[in-house]
Each structure stands twice: as structure tokens, then as C-alpha cells.
Amino acid sequence: xxAYIKKEITEYMRTGRMIILGxxxxxxxxxxxxxxxxxxxxxxxxxxxxxxxxxKIGEVTVSNLSSWEQYFKNLPMxxxxxxLVIGGAFAAEYKSGGFIFAVTRGLKRDRIVLSKxxxxxxxxxxxxxxxxxxxxxxxxxxxxxxxxxxxxxSMFFWWLYGVWMISLFVLMAVLxxxxxxxxxxxxxxxxxxxxxxxxxxxxxxxxxxxxGGMSLITGENVSGDYTAAAVIAGVSAAVMLAGAVxxxxxxxx
Amino acid sequence: MDILKIEGLKKSFGTKEVLRGLSFSVxxxxxxxxxxxxxxxxxxxxxxxxxxxAADSGDVYVDGDKVRYGDASTNRCVGYLPxxxxxxxxxxxxxxLKFCGELSKMEAAEIKSRSEELLSLVGLAGEKKRxxxxxxxxxxxxxxxxxxLHRPKLLICDEPTSALDPLGRRELLDxxxxxxxxxxxxxxxxxxxxxxxxxxxxxxxxKGSIALEGTIDExxxxxxxxxxxxxxxxDEECKKLIGRFGKLVRGEHNSLKLKESEQLPxxxxxxxxxxxxxxxxxxGEVTLEDLFMEVISE
Lengths: 253, 298
Description:
The structure holds 2 protein chains of 2 kinds. By secondary structure, chain A is mostly helical. Chain A is built from 11 helices and no strands. In chain A, helix 1 (2-14) crosses helix 6 (109-143), helix 3 (64-86) runs antiparallel to helix 6 (109-143) and helix 6 packs antiparallel against helix 7 (151-175). The mean pLDDT of chain A is 90. In chain B, helix 3 (108-121) packs across helix 4 and helix 4 (136-148) packs parallel to helix 5 (166-178). Chain B folds into 2 domains: 2-222, 3-Layer(aba) Sandwich (Rossmann fold), CATH 3.40.50.300; 228-297. Chain B is an alpha/beta fold. At the A-B interface, helix 1 and helix 5 of A face helix 2 of B.
């Protein structure tokens, strides 16, 4: 397995995808606290004009919560960019015969899927850690960490949501051997779950519930509220991965 | 011993029956030409032998082990060279071979020494750039190197020369001929001159099964000898010969073709008795192409 993962890492490094993802994750990691820091100044700049339009802006105070709010608000977009960049992870190999090549060298099909999945999760974990670490560092530096509860847990839930999303993508990418198929399938399932999440009784059982970290750090929700969603996300990620492995065993390459 | 054994292989795509009970065996240490028209099912057969395509029925054995669709274990002793090998463009030839060796679970030191040996064999030893900058011929040669890296018992080449220019083709055929000592080569092609140059045995796939099989000499001799061309001195003499031997066919100028060469002694005796001028007598060589055209048109 390690040879294939090494090849994957080389591929991400040399095709520039790692740089693109790295820059985006770092950029937003800096942007989250920067936006919070700049908000009073921005408001001040706009105040005069707003007053002429009849709005009056009072004094704007920002805290570490403003920075974390930015963090949780930007994560879905960053996740989307991540999925778009990895979109060809399977399709390119189907197209080029890369899978056929690996199989004809005696590599077990299960290992191909597991290596790809592991690589994507490794990538996600490293990028997520860098992104979160940067935001965390600046936020604590500027405002400290008072008034924030369960921050680590809220981050873990978001990371777990990423793992779930990757598992969904891998399943779709095995099933539908084109970039558009894999991304379209992932988007369709995500959209269905997003719609289901609008029903209050259902929402807290869905993986998307794990993205609501802001409610956890402000104390609006308690960690126990996320247990069901976390267990369901973990189990369904494992089921999707197992499904992907089994489908790939008999897939026409 | 047979390194590859195919028994009663059947495969259809929709309503199109591509393989209809195909059976043949490839003995060890031969270069085995697998010939057929485009779409005859050569690639299909090879993909089934590699376990990357499911057969409808029939069995394939590689080195005595049964090939199962989706299971790559029999591929451990097989090297595969596709018609247009695609590589990871961002790797150099050495990195690529290292990756291949690691997939085949070879020792690091052996990967290194074997890579150098093969890169010299295929003429890429001095190549430092990434595969992205390689020509098609260079890619094909690197393809041979990767296919031979783990010293496979069987090398499966799917039309390896069809996408190459004459020089690249020549180079590749030389390489395949050179590796005969260490491996068995199954080589599919529709270029018959390639087969005549390097193959020990040949099988012709036609209508989903083997229409001809054997060594090239066996096949040629089993299908009789070539046509005999007789060139007489004048038009009258030609007419006289045709009048006596109805099976002679008139060609250009004063030439006559005799397809059934067992009649030749009678014809020659007649020429001598009648004092006919014999300008030229020639026996044409049977080519694989003639034989295959004959089989295909049957």
C-alpha cells in the first residue's frame, strides 16, 4: 500500500494541486482573524456613507467569537474547493488506464481504493490542521480564548464531517468514472442531505449537523447534541468506504 | 510446460459474440504471435488473461494458476505492455520503474540494478527528464522496461508496434526478440511481417476462435507450397500450354501461374517434349499474409 500512497503524494506535489490547496487553506486561515480584526475599521470607513443613507452604526466590538464565526462560515467553501480539486482523483486513472496498470502489476483492487481514501484523508487532515492552527494562533494572540467552550470538539466534528464527505466522494468516484459524475453524485447526495436538514426533527442526526460548531463554542448547544450526528457520520463513512471497496472489486476498469 | 492456457473462452458484448470457445496454449520461452483483424478479440482475450475483464465462460491459466476476474494475484508473474502505455507524466523513467518495482514488492537494491539494466536495454539509460517530454517510441520502450522489471514469466504485449513509426517498430521488435531467453512473450498484432520476423509460433484468431496455429514453418508447409510461375517464349506457346493444362492461369506478358504444384513435373515434361521455350521458372514463397488472406476469405 505504501508505494501507491507515495505515488499519490508525489502526484499532488508535482501537479501543483498541493500548492493550490495549501495556499487556499493558509489564505483563509489568515483571513478569518484578519476579517474579524478589520471589521471595526471597515465599519468606520462605511459609517459616514451609511449615516447619509439613514443608518447609524454604533460602536462595533469584536472578540475571539467574531474570528471563530468567520472560521465556521468559511469552512464549507473551503471544503467545496477541496472536493473540486480532488475531483479527478479516480476519473483521471480510469481514463489513463492507471488502474489497469496497477492491477496488472498485481496490486489488489481493495488496496487501490483504500490508498486513495487514505491519501485524501491525510491531505484533508494536514490542510485542516494548518488552516485551523493559523486561525487559532492569531485568534488567541489577539483576543485570548475566554468565553469559548468546546473549541477542540467543534473542530473535531468539522474534521469528521470532512472525512464523511471524502468517503462519499470516493464512493461516487468509484461508481461514476468521470469527474463530472463523481462531483455531480457527491453534490446530489449533499444537496439531498442539506434539504433533509431543514426538517428540525431530522437535522441533528445528519452529518451536516457537525458543521454547526459555532453553536457549540457559544454554549448554545452542548456536546451531547452532536453525538448522534457524529456516530451516524462515522458509521456511514465506514459503510460508504466498504461499499466503494466492494464495488471496485468487480468494476470494469 | 505451457505458461498460458486458454480453454473454451467465450465473451460477448451485447449481441456481438467476440470469442466463441477460444482455446490455445503458449509454451514457455517462445515468442507467440497472436494475430487477427482489428476487432477480432485479441485485446479482449488479453484483458481476460490479465483478470481485468470478465469472461462469459471458459478458463484461463497462467503458470498453472486459474485467472479470476478482479483478482490480481496471477499477475505477479505477468508483465503487460499495452498498445499505448500511459504513464504518470510527472515521474522520470527511474522514478516510474521504482514505483513499479515497489508495487511488485521487489527489494530496493534489486529495483535499482534491474532498472539500470533495463533502461540500458531499451536505450533510455541517459534519460533524465520526466515522462511528459517523452516521444511515443520512448514511452513504448519504457513500457517494455516496466513490463520486464519483475522478471515476469509471461510478457503480454497488446499491439505494441501498431502506434510506432518504422524505426520505433524495429527497435521494439529487436528488444522483444532479445528478451526471449528470459521470458515468454505473447504478442498480438495485425502486422504480419512483425510476426514473421520475431515469432516462433503463431495463432490466427478469426470469428472468435483459432483458425490456424503452429510454428511459422508448420503453418506454411501445411498449406502447401507457393505458386509456380512459368514464363514461356511466345503467346502461342502460352496458349498451347493452357490448352493442355486447364489449371494454368494466364498472367502478364507470357507468364502463367500454376497453383497446384504437383502438376509441375507433367508440365515440365510437356514443355521438353514439345520444345516450348522456357524463359523463366520460379516458385513463389508462401507468406503468412497469403495464408491468412486465404483463411479469412474462407
